[in-house]
Amino acid sequence: MNSPTPYEAWRKAIDKVLKGAPFEKRLITKTYEDIDLQPMYRQEDIEGLPHLDGLPGFAPYLRATTPMGYAVSSWDVAQEMPYSTPAAFNTALKADLERGQNAVNIVLDRPTLAGVDADQAEADDVGKGGLSISSVADLAAALDGVDLEKTPIFIQASTSALTFTALLAALLKQQGKSLAKIRGAIGMDPLGQLARDGRLPRDLDGIYEVMAQLATWAKTNAPQLRTITVQGHPYHNGGASATQELAFALATAVDYLRALQARGLSIDDAAPRFRFALSIGSNFFMEIARLRAARVLWAKIVKAFGGNEESQKMRLHARTSAWNQTVYDPHVNLLRATTEAFSGAVGGRDSLHISPFDELLRVPDEFARRVARNTHTVLREESHITKTVDPAGGSWYVENLTDAVARKTWGFSRRSRNRAAWLRRSKRAGRKIRSPTPHPSAPPTSPSARIFSSAPTCIRI
Predict the structure, then answer these.
(1) What is the CATH number of the domain that holds 72?
(2) Does residue 450 sit within a domain?
(3) Tens digit of each residue's pLDDT (9 = 90 or more) over 209-228
């Protein structure tokens, strides 16, 4: 049996290849997240790292929030349906539910998000960017033929969540169905909406009152319905790194937790109402590490607030990146979305939207939806990654990177100022807050990305 080759011998061989060039400059890669990637990892690189002996389904949930991961139940295929009218939405939804999709994912247009009836909104805004809903009849038409007791529903409702919950409750009552059996989310995320749009339709404190009332109502009447969806997409699309996006999302969640506690909810009443939604970028291993780190960080936050282990579980949705898609060679988007979806499956998330390759050009057609939907099927049925819980677990590289991502995320959050206080000050001063969207051709180091290096946010617990 051959004895192991010492690391020094490998370094000597590498130095010979480098011919005097600095090892650190040629072979150590500095990522956009300011993390140094080594050219090779060894067992020594994971010595002393926390949670390596953790098991799936047990806090802090590094490996998974359930003991069997995807081996028993796979992720929800939650493709967005960006159609503007209830009829068009329903036609596409029913077609896709018959061909592999198993969840409803509704993106709303701007007037609906602002709580403005379609008849009173600017004509050009109605249906722009999503579904226009103004009544129970509209919602009934959009969801015609869908059994909501068996099909999860996710509605990105933000500040109009209360209105949408009332519409959904009325529809279910008409259909004779039980709210207690509804699974999914009608997610509020006012700070995310403010970061994306630069404005809110009403006062933030008033929105927090609604958030607390809705969370309290859901605990009693719809226990499987989450009422808060913390989105990282505005920051990702504005140029944030993987660690910055996660830091902003966690800081936002901390603000919401504090707001709910101030309004009488306990941590174990509030935390189970949360759902997170992150964008997955092209850096394959970085994204795997980030999803694993996200579960650990959220568990630590909830634990610090006094939450029990069940409350510490993170419910996580992901979508492949919109920021890096191209309009000039849209078929390249197929390749990017596939690798991003793969890293999401390996890192672990509860539901996933895979962007159709023509998403930036138009409302996706049936062919584009089919390719995106079938990517789920190939990953789930043919790659066999669902057969092993946390398939990247134990990798020297992935475990080391997971720890680095967690530390960078935590440090970024702690160094920044309190975000909610900053937002409130800005609102009082009458300023608009904008999350800049970079030009599709802008490199990751563009000035728009650097906005986030000083953006005010924190996790102080």
Answers:
(1) 3.20.20.240
(2) yes
(3) 999 999 999 999 999 999 99
Show Cβ contacts of residue 88 under 8 Å, excluding neighbours closer than 6 positions.
Answer: none
The amino acid at residue 391 is P
Residues 6+ apart with CB under 8 A from 367: none
Has residue 21 been placed in a domain? Answer: no
Residue 459 lies in a domain: no
Tokens for 135, please give them: 């009544």
Does residue 342 form part of some domain?
yes
Positive/negative CA dihedral, 235, 237, 239, 244: positive
Give the global pTM: 0.89
Chain center to CA of 324: 16
Question: Tell me: the pLDDT tens digits for 259-306?
Answer: 999 999 999 999 999 999 999 999 999 999 999 999 999 999 999 999
Confirm if 280 and 340 have CB atoms less than 8 A apart. yes
Please identify which residue in the block is written with the tokens 């986030």. 452
Which residues constitute the domain of residue 272?
30-454
| Residue 261 identity | Q
Strands 29-30 and 36-37: antiparallel
User: Based on the structure, what is the number of domains in the chain?
Assistant: 1
CB atoms within 10 A of CB 382: 8
Structure tokens at 114: 């602002």
- Separation CA 354–CA 374 (nearest Å): 10
